[in-house]
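Write out the 3D structure for:
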Amino acid sequence: QVQLVESGGGFVQAGDSLRLSCAAFGRTSSIYIIGWFRQVPGKEREFVGFITRGLGWANYADSVKGRFTISRDNAKNTVYLQMNGLKPEDTAVYYCAAREEGRSEYEHWGQGTQVTVSS
């Protein structure tokens, strides 16, 4: 099993930066991709970006491209989401999720961390 724990959320002003962390525990060697998602109450969960565990190749949603950066530290089994130039519309609960090798779905999810950006 894989367990994910997010941290780093908070309340910031528009234009500020914030870094979220996603620490993985358990059978971390099975992880192929770590993704970041966000959700606002009453709305569908939105894809933010992902990074591959091996080569560290990252991809982003258009809404965050150029502002957000995903990185990983395999030695610490931790993935980071660096968020710069935050906007009020970035306010959401942010989740990380893990997809295992050979799987097509994100099967393991963290508990989420709240990010609130005031204007």
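The CA atoms of residues 12 and 117 lie 5 Å apart.
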